[in-house]
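WARN retry 2 of 3 for item q-0093 after timeout on previous attempt; input resubmitted unchanged.
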Amino acid sequence: GALTARAEVAPEILRILAAAVPATSRAAVLARVDARLATTEPEFVLEAFPGLSDDDPGREIASEVDGFVRRLESGHYFREVAWDEERREQRAFGDESWAREMDDYLARSATVAFSGNDLLAAHLYARLLSAFRLAPRTGVFCGPERPDRMVESDLTEAKRHYLRALYRVVPEEARPSRVLSELISLRDVGDEAFGIADLRDDDEEVLPDFEAFLARSVAYLEAMGPEDGGREVRRLSREAAALAHGADGLGALAKRDGGGHAEAWHDWFGALVRDERLDEATRVGRQGISVIADIGYRARLGDRLAAVALRLGDSALAVEAARGAFRARPTELR
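OK item q-0093 returned
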C-alpha cells in the first residue's frame, strides 16, 4: 500500500537540496542526510491509497484510476506532433480513447461522490483532475482540441465535487491550506473564475462550519506571499474578505496592501456603492486615486468616482475625479 523513494533519484534530490540550502548551512544538512542514509528505513513513504483500508472495495477503482493517469502521464496515448491538413496547423496525434476513459472515470467518480463516500471521491478526483495540469506539456495528451475540450464531462462541476468532498474529509483547522491550495493549483481546469462562493453554493447541502472556514481562509491568504500564487491568491483574498466581512473586509484588505492591490480598492468602492454607502464610496474613491500605483486602475477608479459624483449631484467632485482619471491616463474620450 505504499511507494518508496528509489535510490537512483537520491543524487537529483541532493542536487536540488544543495542549490536551495545556504552555503553556511550545507555541512550541517549533509551530516543529517548522511545519518539518515546510514539507516535501512526508506527516505520517505507516499501512501498509494491514503485513508483507504486494505479491504476497502474502493481500492479497486482507485487502482484503475491510478493506472490510467500513469499511462496518460507517461505518454502512452501520445504518438507524435504533426501537421493536420484539415485544420491547417500542427497538433498532437495518437490514441484519442484517453478522452473516453477520462469521461468514464469522471462519471464513476461522480457516482462515488453522490453516494457520500467523500474520502474515495476526493482521491479519485484528485488523480483525474491533476492530469489536466499537464496540458501544456508535449507528449501527454493528443487530439484536435485542447484536452479539456476533448472530454464531454463538465470539469467545473468535477472540480466542485472534488473540493467539496475534500472540504468534508479534511480536519477543520487544515481546510484553508488544503482546499485553497488545490483550488489555486486547479485554476486552469474548468472555469478559471471558480472561487470560494462556488465551493459553498450547492442546492443539495450546505458545507459545515463554513463561516469558520471563511475566517481561517482570510488569515491563511493574508499570510501567503506573491510567490505562493500571485494573482490567484489576490483574487481569492478579495473574495474571502468580501464573503466574510463585506465591504468592510475589502476595505481592510485594500488598506493593508496599499496601492499595490488596485483590484481591492475597486472591489471596496463597488461594494460600498452596492450597499448605498455613497458618501463612504466617494471618500474611498478619492483615496484610491491618490494611492493606487497602476495608472490604468487609477484612471478607471476616477471614471467610476465621477459617475457616482454625478449621481449625487456633486459636479465639483465629478470634475475632480474626471481630471484625476485624465491625468492618470489621458485619452481622447476622457
